[in-house]
Amino acid sequence: LHPENIQLASARVLSPGQADRLASAFERLMTPTRLRILHALACADAMCGYDLELLVSLEQTSVSHQLRMLRDRGIVSRRKVGRLEFYRLEDPALCAFLNAFDGRAAGSGAGGGVVSPWAPAGASATEAEPSPR
After folding, report:
1. Is 76 left (phi over 0), alpha (psi -120 to 50) or beta?
2. Is 11 helix (H, G, I), strand (E, B) or coil?
3. Consecutive sets of 10 residues in the chain, 133 residues long: mean pLDDT of each?
4. Alpha-carbon span 130 to 79, nearest angstrom
5. Which whole-number Å values give the CA distances from 8 to 12, 22, 84, 85, 125, in the listed order?
6. CA-closest candidate to residue 80, choices 56, 106, 114, 49
7. pLDDT given at position 54
8. In the prediction, which pLDDT does 26 show?
9. HSE-up of 87 (CA within 13 Å, CB side)?
10. Of the candidates 94, 112, 1, 80, the residue with the CA atom closest to the CA atom of residue 39
């Protein structure tokens, strides 16, 4: 046992209710389309719907539907400028989280190997494998 670690974590560990809410929030994000849209928004301060359509190579109706769902859940906000609608992430912590995965998603490793998004930047598929305990 490591009492110093337990003491440090005890004040910050998620309660069961907090863990349920966080899991529910992650479920709302866990589609490739939503993740691509959210990551695009994390890469820029704000983007109009037309730019998002081009960037993620999806039909306008698909992007609009996803943005509406994300807006209804308070994940993104919308600002109208004339006929254009600009979207941005509402939570800076989500923005930082998404930016932490730039170029490190599965399949982006050298030689096409799968690299964990948790691996250090630039790690190869073999370097990203967990070490035995």
Report:
1. beta
2. coil
3. 87 89 82 90 92 92 94 93 94 88 55 51 50 40
4. 44
5. 8, 21, 48, 45, 33
6. 49
7. 93
8. 82
9. 26
10. 94
